[in-house]
From TrEMBL:
GO terms for molecular function: oxidoreductase activity. PANTHER family: FATTY ACID REPRESSION MUTANT PROTEIN 2-RELATED (PTHR43035). It is found in: Cytoplasm. This is Nitroreductase family protein. Pfam families: Nitroreductase. The keyword Nucleus does not apply. One of its GO terms (cellular component) is cytoplasm. Residues 8-170 form the Nitroreductase domain. Its main location: cytoplasm. GO terms for biological process: cellular response to oxidative stress. InterPro entries: Frm2/Hbn1, Nitroreductase, Nitroreductase-like. The lineage of its organism: Bacteria, Bacillati, Bacillota, Tissierellia, Tissierellales.
Length: 191
């Protein structure tokens, strides 16, 4: 348990990234596959999809994102995203969600929320697994502004809903510690 807690403590939002990671693209792909296969999902539905971009494909993605936002992305963050080893794009397969809504109507109002929970668990698990390999990452949300061209450029189904982008790479700089609210404001123990 202590090892797991230490991994969680090491996981931070890393923005200053580079390509120089110790793992090959193939090793990272296998890591992503493992994390996808072991991460739980609502009713074992596995509705999250990942598009994995490496090297120049990742650079091209971030160039397009920056252009979409008229080059207004924070320059320091953009530099790290652009120079990262890769980017994982997270989607929810809405066809799967809609099928669940039809087939289990009594839970209809919850499946989309649960789909987002499943995607979030996968994002966090991958983020921590990468960090355990000395690879930094962060979660970005440039969707829905980029949704249309992402589906077009990568020839993705219309029913895939983009929910997050995760640039990852070698950690070039540790982020500053963030202040946290007192635990008493966040935790209620009833015995």
């Amino acid at each position: 348990m202590k090892d797991y807690i230490e991994i969680i403590k090491k996981r931070r939002s890393y923005y200053n990234l580079s390509e120089d990671v110790d793992l090959t693209n193939e090793e990272i792909k296998y890591l992503v596959e493992d994390v996808m296969n072991i991460t739980p999902s609502h009713m074992n539905s596995e509705t999250t999809r990942i598009v994995l971009l490496f090297d120049d494909k990742s650079k091209d993605f971030w160039t397009r994102v920056n252009e979409t936002f008229d080059k207004s992305i924070n320059k320091e963050k953009f530099h790290g995203f652009y120079h990262a080893k890769g980017t994982a794009l997270f989607f929810i397969d809405m066809n799967e969600i809609w099928d669940q809504e039809i087939n289990m109507a009594s839970y209809r109002d919850y499946f989309e929320t649960w789909g987002h929970h499943s995607a979030a668990m996968l994002q966090l698990n991958l983020w921590q697994a990468l960090r355990d390999e000395e690879i930094g990452a962060s979660i970005q949300h440039y969707n829905p502004v980029i949704d249309e061209w992402v589906k077009e450029v990568y020839d993705l189904p219309e029913h895939w809903e983009l929910v997050a982008q995760m640039p990852f790479g070698k950690i070039e700089e540790e982020p500053e510690a963030k202040d946290k609210k007192p635990i008493e404001e966040k935790l209620l123990v009833i015995e």
